[in-house]
């Protein structure tokens, strides 16, 4: 997924080189299904309090479509990214879209009941600033995820991917262990739940 521009430049942060949602590999499909189930479960847990949802770093919009179709539909679901040129033509029509950087979201404080930001923080030069901004615009809950390192890279190596980069996916400039993401999240969130589908960490929290 895409992330946003760095705080002091207009250079876009690219997302992953592969579309994990479109993989035909049965193992990859099973892993992605586990990830989607974990994100959806935590999203549903937050849903009773949610009428408006903002997704930051929506990429192709496939996660947004999954959540809209597999959870109680909020009154508004707005999906944003620094660039919208990769949006899937199969994006659910109930989803609104807008170009915005995670570092400078054009919304007032506490504008959305839930903010979703999955597979984004690992692409950021300053993930702390990104988390601060998404927490600012969240009223009730923040849902985040990142790859679980170093397991993510080890799994890439096992399938002979990115060997010259020691398994690091292009575009990943931060590498979060489970404890590392939990520690970062706790700087701006009271953590309500964590799921650990291999090889990801997914956290649901409440803005402090």
From TrEMBL:
It holds the Pfam family Methyltransf_11. Keywords: Methyltransferase, Transferase. GO terms for biological process: methylation. GO terms for molecular function: demethylrebeccamycin--D-glucose O-methyltransferase activity; S-adenosylmethionine-dependent methyltransferase activity. The keyword Transferase applies. It comes from the Bacteria. The keyword RNA-binding does not apply. InterPro entries: Methyltransf_11, SAM-dependent_MTases_sf. Its EC number is 2.1.1.164. Residues 54-140 form the Methyltransferase type domain. This is Demethylrebeccamycin-D-glucose O-methyltransferase. It comes from Enhygromyxa salina.
